[in-house]
Amino acid sequence: MLGYTAEELMGQFVWKISADEELSRRAALAKLAGELLPPSKGFERMFRRKDGSTFPVLIKDRLLGSEDGSITGIRAAIQDITDRRKAEEALDYERGFAAALLDNSPDEIYSRTPSPLRQMQPGHGRPVWRGIPGCAGGQDGF
To answer: What letter does residue 66 receive in the DSSP assignment?
Structure first.
């Protein structure tokens, strides 16, 4: 994922592979000092590969402690989320395209699904779907 060998990473601080080294350093030190708890659902950061390229990761970390309750370290699971980010960007683009198409359509648009027939009235900023009374899916003649 990063292009380093295990020997190259051994003994390095985790923030050395972060694209925003200072932010990661401050967060890690605050967690080790007990000033900041890891988020329960993880958080996203940009990491830097050995070749200098960056990529998004999801980090789920957990504080490690001794028997007396003091913090001794941080354990982290790191996942490359490049593909997820690309899919989210494509979905955002498609949603924006569909919304622009519907908002600028001078015509009413109907949707036929297994549920009752619905009508979309354009020009309201967001599509307004309304059920059409008496028209159930499969009984509308479309």
So the answer is: -
